[in-house]
Amino acid sequence: MTAPAAKDTEKQDAGESARILLFLVILATASLWLQHHLGFELKKLGMVALVGAIWGSMGKLADWFGVKSTAGAFFDSFVRAPLRGLLRRVAKPGALRVAGGALAVLMALLSSVTVRSELPDERGAVSIAPVDAAGAVRVDSLGPGGTVRFLPVITSPFGREFRIDAEGYLPVSIPVYPLISRRVVLGRDLAAVPSVLFRPFVEGMVGMLDGGRFQVMRLRGTSSEVVATDSGHATSFLLGRPGTVTEAMRGLWGLELDAAQIGLEPKADFLMRWRRPHQVATASKLAPNDRLVAEIVVRCRVKARAEVILSGGPLIDVLMLDVITDAGEVPPC
Q1: What is residue 42's predicted lDDT score, i.e. its pLDDT?
Q2: Average pLDDT, integer, range 106-114
Q3: How far is 191 from 71, CA to CA, in rounded Å?
Q4: Distances in Å between the alpha carbon of 298 and those of 3, 133, 167, 182?
Q5: Rounded CA gap, 36 and 116, in Å?
Q6: Predicted confidence band of residue 119 (pLDDT cuts 50, 70, 90)
Q7: What is the pLDDT of residue 317?
Q8: Banded model confidence at residue 3, pLDDT cuts 50, 70, 90
Q9: pLDDT band at 66 (very low <50, low <70, confident <90, very high)
Q10: pLDDT at position 326
């Protein structure tokens, strides 16, 4: 082979090697990007590295001792040679442009959103929807470890607003950008729905036993809307996110009953009914600063009433005070 021909061959080999290296860089970038959105699993990555190190060490030992192992010969014939041929085909300039362009477009338009709860055993539905499009809602449930991942999420190079909603939490809008995934923590990025416990007292409890209706209205300026109703339960009523009745709360209840000079047997009955609240569904989610008015109505007469402004703290405990009406008063309906 003449010197110019040898130089041309060397240039071709060098160009081919450079294209193969560029293809491997594109492949590694795509793998890392996808793995970033799927979630890194260090254990699996460590196992792959360990297997690769053992395999490479076996080949080195065979070269040192001048022995080509059977496994090495098999690898050369059935893996390395076909892989080299495949790389030569995919590393052509046209294929590289297509692969690189496709990867750039995907990385500029796709992302992921991971929603995680601070409580590992929490369950509930989680939804995500773009703010600028109606009806495109995706719903999933918190899985083991209190985590759910939405992939792929179509965004733009400049970001896109998405509305995240989870059961028991207030919805929030967040920007989602390409390349990096967005992680949302329930209880930190999404505030928990306020919880309020309404406890009927004497007239209210008697009214519920007499076929009364429990109702809650939300006041906004001069308007009001009914957000919850219930009947058939002579107990306390819980609205919002389930909360825990603490020992301190039960101690305060006992003091309230003692101050009202309630006998031992009725006191025990009140404490039993209050400590087992009935969860009442609301027409819409409660939020901090909502002004609620709760009433127990029996045949158009209000027997108990309470008013509260919600906060973002733990369970709000509200005693519904008795409403004494004149026996001769005509009901409004």
Answers
A1: 46
A2: 89
A3: 58
A4: 107, 46, 33, 51
A5: 16
A6: confident
A7: 95
A8: low
A9: low
A10: 65
**What DSSP string runs through 197-247?**
EEEE-HHHHHHHHTT-EEEEEEEETTEEEEEEEEES--S-EEESS-----H
Domains of the chain: 3-107 (no CATH), 109-186 (2.60.40.10), 196-322 (no CATH)
> Residue for token digits 């209706």?
213
Q: Environment class of residue 304 by beta-carbon count within 10 Å: exposed (0-12), middle (13-18) or buried (19+)? A: buried
* Alpha carbon distances (Å) from 5 to 10, 206, 214: 9, 105, 95
Mean pLDDT value across residues 133-159 = 85
Spatial distance between the Cα atoms of 170 and 267, rounded to a whole number of angstroms: 37
Predicted pLDDT of residue 210: 93
Among candidates 316, 314, 229, 236, which has minimal Cα distance to 273?
236
What tokens does 280 get?
């009442």
**Please, how many CA atoms are within 13 Å of residue 213, restricted to the half-sphere of its CB?**
11
Are 122 and 192 a contacting pair, CB within 8 Å? Answer: no
Q: Give the amino acid at 144.
A: P
* Residue type, position 269, single letter: D
